[in-house]
């Protein structure tokens, strides 16, 4: 879920200059994925993407015979294996077989309904991508004190890894299932039902982290359908799927862009490369402004040709990544995606959503369209509410969502009805914040990629990394 720059939040006079006509591509029946190479457009790319960070397939489809062996943390297991190896090959084979049988995993269904806690019977969830710190922090890798600190925090990491595994399984199902012709409501409900089932949604213990964004085309962020929205996904749409999963308030915030027309391939490639650049640059004592500068340089090295017009991919300069605190999606630090940001540093133990947005428009968003996203203000002042309806609505929000963002559809599920005026009262009283859709110029196209990382004492972990992105 994107963070809007505070200093740019005031409404600015926007000249609504259409930059490109809506794509006129023939509605094709082929659901070509963005992975297919686009030969028809000369997608120039000045800079070579290293892509190194994206390549590790640490989240393979779970083989039923493969116990979820963890590296490093699961010391007992490692030791056992060593003993076996010492004991000789034959013995090792028999013992291993037995062991695997005991730990045989339950397979996931299609659509996904099996909680990941049933798939990982030992309740140890897979690590994300592990990245070593660079030079000045390399000492951390082997430092005993830092290693001990990390072991003490294992349960917290294991919780958020469970959320990450849910995110991977749900999004991979969504990617192979979402097709043009589906309504936006069908799409978000598919993702939300999958999330609730796989994370065993249960009050504040575990559940959805924030509303499922499915922003289209020039809308970059914070659109999810409200009840009655008839919007249907089109072949030529550029759809940002941004959804959250939490366990114990530890939120995974991760997003990707879904397209069917290969004409957008280089827009997506540029944004993916930019996000991976931000992830690569992130580290303890790294200045946030330096991350923004690196992201901008990579993003702007891409060009995309749409309808005969070439666009340099622009970062949307008033959208940011952000730190994440427990039950608090926007934790207080912003990760810019252009140069010139502030010099605050990242610190040990912090969680960050590294997200970048690229656009063929102005590279600047403003609020537009009907609002769907809301969240109680984290440290809201106590305001006496005169209207009983606003009071009961606030009780519902406190009971169901606490400080986690929610949308109108989630309020509908709680049985709340005719709450629009009461909701507006809460916004005006400063108790609830609204997050309206954020759009660039009409006719432009925007893309997004996002991962959640944690700066552990000895290494950086890209929690939501999968073999898809
Ligand atoms: Co976010």
From TrEMBL:
Substrate binds at residues 222, 330. It is found in: Cytoplasm. Residues 1-115 are annotated as: Disordered. A divalent metal cation 1 binds at residues 242, 253, 450. One of its GO terms (cellular component) is cytoplasm. Residues 1-13, 55-71 have a biased composition (Basic and acidic residues). Binds 2 divalent metal cations per subunit. Has a high-affinity and a low affinity metal-binding site. The true nature of the physiological cofactor is under debate. The enzyme is active with cobalt, zinc, manganese or divalent iron ions. Most likely, methionine aminopeptidases function as mononuclear Fe(2+)-metalloproteases under physiological conditions, and the catalytically relevant metal-binding site has been assigned to the histidine-containing high-affinity site. Pfam families: Peptidase_M24. It comes from the Eukaryota. GO terms for biological process: proteolysis. The keyword Hydrolase applies. Keywords: Aminopeptidase, Cytoplasm, Hydrolase, Metal-binding, Protease. A divalent metal cation 2 binds at residues 253, 322, 355, 450. Residues 93-106 have a biased composition (Basic residues). Residues 72-85 have a biased composition (Acidic residues). Its EC number is 3.4.11.18. Residues 160-363 form the Peptidase M24 domain. It is an enzyme of class 3 (hydrolase). InterPro entries: Creatinase/aminopeptidase-like, Met_Aminopeptidase_Type2, Pept_M24, Pept_M24_MAP, Pept_M24A_MAP2, WH-like_DNA-bd_sf, WH_DNA-bd_sf. Residues 16-37 have a biased composition (Polar residues). Its cofactor is Mn(2+); Co(2+); Zn(2+); Fe(2+). One of its GO terms (molecular function) is metal ion binding. Belongs to the peptidase M24A family. Methionine aminopeptidase eukaryotic type 2 subfamily. Cotranslationally removes the N-terminal methionine from nascent proteins. The N-terminal methionine is often cleaved when the second residue in the primary sequence is small and uncharged (Met-Ala-, Cys, Gly, Pro, Ser, Thr, or Val). HAMAP family: MetAP_2_euk. This is Methionine aminopeptidase 2.
């Amino acid at each position: 879920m994107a963070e809007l720059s505070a200093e740019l939040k005031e409404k600015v006079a926007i000249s609504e200059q259409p930059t490109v006509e809506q794509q006129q591509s023939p509605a094709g029946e082929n659901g070509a994925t963005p992975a297919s190479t686009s030969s028809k457009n000369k997608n120039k790319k000045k800079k070579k993407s290293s892509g190194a960070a994206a390549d590790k397939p640490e989240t393979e489809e779970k083989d039923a015979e493969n116990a979820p062996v963890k590296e490093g943390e699961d010391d007992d297991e490692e030791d056992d294996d060593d003993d076996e190896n010492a004991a000789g090959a034959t013995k090792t084979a028999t013992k291993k077989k037995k062991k695997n049988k005991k730990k045989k995993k339950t397979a996931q269904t299609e659509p996904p309904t099996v909680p990941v806690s049933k798939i990982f019977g030992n309740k140890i969830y897979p690590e994300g991508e592990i990245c070593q710190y660079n030079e000045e922090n390399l000492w951390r890798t082997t430092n005993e004190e830092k290693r001990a600190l990390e072991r003490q925090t294992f349960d917290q990491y294991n919780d958020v890894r469970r959320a990450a595994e849910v995110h991977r399984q749900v999004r991979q199902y969504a990617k192979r299932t979402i097709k043009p012709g589906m309504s936006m409501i069908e799409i978000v409900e598919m993702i939300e039902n999958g999330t609730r089932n796989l994370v065993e949604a249960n009050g504040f213990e575990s559940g959805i982290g924030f509303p499922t964004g499915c922003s289209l085309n020039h809308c970059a962020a914070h659109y999810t359908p409200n009840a009655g929205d008839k919007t249907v996904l089109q072949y030529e749409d550029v759809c940002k799927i941004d959804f959250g999963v939490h366990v114990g308030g530890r939120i995974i915030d991760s997003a990707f862009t879904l397209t069917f027309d290969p004409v957008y391939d280089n827009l997506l490639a540029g944004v993916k490369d930019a996000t991976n650049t931000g992830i690569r640059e992130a580290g303890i004592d790294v200045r946030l402004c330096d991350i923004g500068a690196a992201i901008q340089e990579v993003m702007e090295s891409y060009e995309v040709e749409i309808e005969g017009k070439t666009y340099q991919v622009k970062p949307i300069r008033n959208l940011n990544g952000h730190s994440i605190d427990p039950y608090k999606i926007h934790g207080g630090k912003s990760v810019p995606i252009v140069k010139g940001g502030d010099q605050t540093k990242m610190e040990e133990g912090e969680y960050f959503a590294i997200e970048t947005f690229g656009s063929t428009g102005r590279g600047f968003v403003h609020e537009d369209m009907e609002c769907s996203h809301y969240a109680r203000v984290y440290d809201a002042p106590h305001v006496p509410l005169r209207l009983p309806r606003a009071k009961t609505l606030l009780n519902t929000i406190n009971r169901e969502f606490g400080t986690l963002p929610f949308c109108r559809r989630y309020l509908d599920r709680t049985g709340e009805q005719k709450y629009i005026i009461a909701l507006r009262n809460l916004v005006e009283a400063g108790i609830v914040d609204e997050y309206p859709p954020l759009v660039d110029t009409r006719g432009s196209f925007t893309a997004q990629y996002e991962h959640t990382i944690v700066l552990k004492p000895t290494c950086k972990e890209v929690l939501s990394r999968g073999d898809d992105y």
